Amino acid sequence: MHFLKSGTGQVLNKMKRQKVFITSIFLIILSAWVTAGCGSSANSATTSNANNQPEIVDITTAQAIIRPIPSYIEATGNLASDAQTDVAPAVGGKIVEVNFDIGSYVNKGDVLVRLDARDANIRVKQARAQVEQQRKAVGQAEANVDQAIANLRQTQARLGIKDGETFKIENFSQVKSITAQLILAAQELRRTEKLLETGDVSRSAYDQRKAQRDQLLGQLDEARSNAAVAIRAINTAQAAVETARAAASGTRAAVTTAQTQVDQAQKAVIDTVTYAPISGFVSERVADVGEFISPSAPNSKVATIVRTSTLRVKIDVPEQSIGKIATGQGISLQTSAYPDRNFAGTVVRISPSLNATERTLSVEAEVQNIDGLLKPGQFATVRITQSKPEQAIMIPVAAVRTVGDTNSVFVVKDGAAREQFVQLGLLENEMIQVKQGINEGDLVAVSNVNALSDGVLVRQ
Question: For the chain, how are helix, strand and coil distributed in percent, rounded to 5?
Answer without folding.
Answer: 45, 30, 25
